[in-house]
Write a structure and sequence with these properties.
alpha+beta, Alpha-Beta Plaits, 4 helices, about 120 residues, UPF0250_YbeD-like, 4-stranded antiparallel sheet, YbeD-like_sf
């Protein structure tokens, strides 16, 4: 199950990793998220983005394209990794760490990722 896959993933840091189940950050909650993010993080900063979805290699490329479209720069291949779920239904795509300039830029990356309806979860 996807939750146990996420829970086992290496590199998670307690209290600093935002997990949004189902990609359901709405515009209503984005102001709250910005306030919290600005209390805990300073920018510019390096951070990673993880998306879990279906569609295999095509989904991986879609997530990389989403991040690149916001940052306006190419993500080096060494900054992208993927892992297929135990049953092969989902692929987890990790991008980063990459430099982000602001909370707003982080939100823009998540909005770009959510445009692909194959994305089920992001961290």
């Amino acid at each position: 199950d996807v939750y146990s896959e996420v829970a086992k993933s290496k590199g998670r840091v307690a209290l600093t990793t935002n997990m949004v189940i189902g990609g359901t950050v709405t515009d209503d909650s984005s102001d709250e998220w910005l306030v919290l993010d600005q209390k805990v993080n300073t920018y510019p900063t390096d951070r990673g983005f993880t998306a879990i979805g279906t569609g295999g290699e095509d989904f991986v490329h879609s997530m990389v394209d989403a991040v690149e479209s916001v940052l306006q720069e190419s993500i080096p291949k060494g900054q992208v990794s993927q892992k297929i779920s135990s049953r092969g239904k989902y692929v987890s795509v990790k991008i980063g760490p990459i430099r982000v300039a602001s909370s707003e830029q982080v939100q823009a990356v998540y909005r770009a990722m959510r445009r692909d309806n194959r994305m089920k979860y992001f961290l």
